[in-house]
Design goal:
Elements (H helix, E strand, L loop, with lengths): L4 E3 L2 E3 L3 E3 L21 E3 L16 E4 L2 E4 L8 H12 L5 E6 L4 H11 L6 E5 L16 H14 L4 E4 L7 H10 L4 E4 L3 E4 L1 E2 L4 E2 L5 E5 L4 H14 L4 E4 L5 H10 L3 E4 L2 H4 L3 H15 L14
Parallel strand pairs: 3-16, 4-7, 7-8, 8-9, 9-10, 10-15, 15-16
Antiparallel strand pairs: 1-2, 5-6, 6-14, 11-14, 12-13
Helix pairs in contact: 2-3, 3-4, 4-5, 5-6, 6-8
Length: 300
């Protein structure tokens, strides 16, 4: 039985990986999760310099998920290169680095630096606010999506994954723009913009007022967007958004995702990724599917 998937020339032992920002760089989860069994570890966002993130409170539970406004807090690429890459290299798994920035130059600085490091792929988080465009996210303007993809591709030695924002009118326009810019792979979806109000305190639950909604509540939207994008582009897609179980992951795969990321589920069940891998395996055995590629995009 084959569970291996190929993403732009990078072969994963299975299609299950972690979603950026929900797993750190794996160290805190390593007592619950056999990192060798993961298809890949996707790291928390890495910027060219340390980011402090947003003021607290910045996480709130909500119906069917959670809202966060962490603000991509991270220690910067120097610490990441010195501390996190050596830790992950101990394991037989692929390393995908999530890259964030506020200008094209920020992204390029990180991408250039990582080109000499032993990481397998780069995931470019274009839900970051583009400070030169008044704070609109790169991922909400198709021209900006194509331009930032093209710029990053000039400097990247590893295959480039563009992580798309769902906070757009038509996801296929963004998917095609990233493909036109030279993206090797797409990942989707990032969080949906949401808000929670504390009725007792009569104020916003998050200091930032709005935040990113993730968890089971977003899954039907995510599956729909993955399906639409898979019909619109020829490059592979990594699907995510509310995956809690193997059944959830299989929905994304059948809709056209070549791989999946488990995110918010890690917070409530640290073993979620292992259960999803095992569940996909069990499904393939039960339904006598000998190759995962027979499931990818099978529902059209």
């Amino acid at each position: 039985m084959n569970m291996k998937v190929n993403l732009a020339g990078v072969e994963l032992d299975n299609p299950v990986m972690t979603a950026s920002g929900t797993f750190g760089s794996g160290e805190e989860y390593s007592e619950f999760v056999d990192l060798n069994r993961l298809g890949a570890v996707v790291t928390k966002g890495v910027a060219n310099i340390p980011w402090a993130g947003n003021p607290t409170p910045r996480i709130a539970e909500t119906y069917g998920g959670m809202i966060n406004a962490i603000g991509l807090q991270n220690p910067g690429m120097d610490v990441f290169i010195e501390r996190d890459i050596p830790f992950l290299k101990q394991f037989d798994t692929k390393i995908i680095v999530n890259v964030c920035g506020k200008t094209a130059e920020d992204y390029i600085e990180v991408v250039e630096r990582l080109s000499h490091e032993p990481v397998d792929m780069l995931e470019i988080n274009i839900s970051c606010p583009n400070v030169k465009e008044g704070g609109i996210a790169f991922g909400q303007d198709p021209k900006a999506v194509e331009a930032i993809t093209r710029e990053v591709k000039k400097y990247a030695r590893q295959p480039v994954i563009m992580k798309l924002s769902p906070n757009v009118t038509d996801i296929t326009v963004m998917a095609k723009a990233a493909e036109a810019g030279g993206a090797d792979v797409l990942s989707m979806i990032n969080t949906l913009t949401g808000m929670k109000i504390d009725v007792n305190r009569r104020t916003f639950a998050l200091a930032n007022k709005t935040g990113g909604l993730s968890g089971p509540a977003v899954k039907p939207v995510a599956v729909r967007m993955v399906y639409q994008a898979a019909c619109a582009v020829k490059i592979p897609i990594i699907g995510m958004g509310g995956i809690m179980t193997a059944e959830d992951a299989l929905e994304f795969i059948l809709a056209g995702a070549a791989a999946v990321c488990v995110g918010t589920a890690n917070f409530v069940n640290p073993c979620a990724t292992m259960e999803v891998i095992q569940g996909i395996e069990d499904y393939m055995i039960k339904h006598q599917v000998d190759d995962i590629y027979k499931l990818i995009g099978a529902v059209r």
